[in-house]
Amino acid sequence: FFKNTPVEIYDQISYLMGYTVIPHRDLLMHYNSVDILHVSGLHIGVASFTTKPYVTFPFGGDLFITPFEDNETGWMQSRGFKNADRHIASGKVMLEFMETLGISKTKIDLLPLMIDTDVNAPDPDNFLRKELNEKYPGKVIFLAGARQNWAWKGNDKLFRAIAKIAKHNDGAIFLTVWYGQDTAKSEKLIKELGIENKIVKIGVVSKAALRKYINAADVCMDQFTHGGLGTFALESMSCGKPLVTYYNRAKHFDFAEDPPLFSSFTEDEIGEKIKFCLENADELRATGNKHRDWAKKYHGHEALWPGYDAVYKRALSESKNRR
């Protein structure tokens, strides 16, 4: 069954363990065509069943939540982190979780999350922008890209802030992705606050479609809890969009200059930043340009590729020597 994959079945235990990755055979066949794996999400667990050297690149819940769950997926994910050759941590917030998993600091490389700033770029010909402007004339369009998870994303704080602002200013519409553990709670809160006419749910969208929404929006919004900058935040900045989120350099990186985003943690702070964007709508594009410049300088692929390349080469070398 595992022919043409990098999975080896050599005794009774490996035979039984192999059942865990049976659903991933096609993926494992792709794994067999490369020299080293760069894995995120559940791929981290799958990679641990192969003979390939691999580097983990967690993006959030695949490190913060999954490996600590007491089920088969959690056990596999924990095994994936423990068996990896090296780990790229794209923010200081990840280090405490890796330490809890028992990962040696000598195997961790702290590197900023690398963004393709050519793909994630301003799109002046975006048809969706025109459609939304026609549908919501005169409105400042905000896009909330965080899944519905109050503990990790702080969506409840955002909705309460929107309700406060809506009482005094009717100039905004809020688009939001709609999935996650707390969709029912968010639905209930939105109704209780009476802001159903302010929230537009766009469901689950592909990465390409999400870029269209990012470029169609005036302002993007992310998490208001942990203080790090993840993929949505950085891709939004790379597209030249002002970002409202909670930023804490102690949870990210000690860059020479902090990002020019609108950092907010409490409901009142979020509300203040929404109000500022509404009152300074004419300046949002110029502000977004500053966001893009910062993203290219500190998270762009051209600036960061040499560091990533060095990690892969080190992992290959260490794996070869060990084997």
What does this 3D model show about the protein?
The chain is an alpha/beta fold. 45% of the residues lie in helices and 11% in strands. Helix 12 (231-238) links the parallel strand 8 (219-221) and strand 9 (243-245). The mean pLDDT is 94.
Number of DSSP-assigned strands: 10
Element pattern in H and E: HHEHEHHEHEHEHHEHEHEHEEHHH
- What general form does the structure show? elongated
Distance between the termini: 25 Å
Count of individual helical segments: 15
Which percent bin holds the helix content? 40-55%
Descriptive key words:
323 residues; 10 strands
Report a brief summary of the structure.
The protein has helices at residues 12-18, 25-31, 43-47, 61-64, 72-83, 95-100, 127-135, 150-153, 155-166, 183-193, 207-216, 231-238, 267-279, 284-299, 301-322, and strands at residues 37-39, 54-56, 86-89, 108-110, 140-144, 172-177, 199-203, 219-221, 243-245, 262-263. It is of the alpha/beta class and 323 residues long. The strands form two sheets. A six-stranded parallel beta sheet has the order 7-6-5-8-9-10, with helices on both faces.
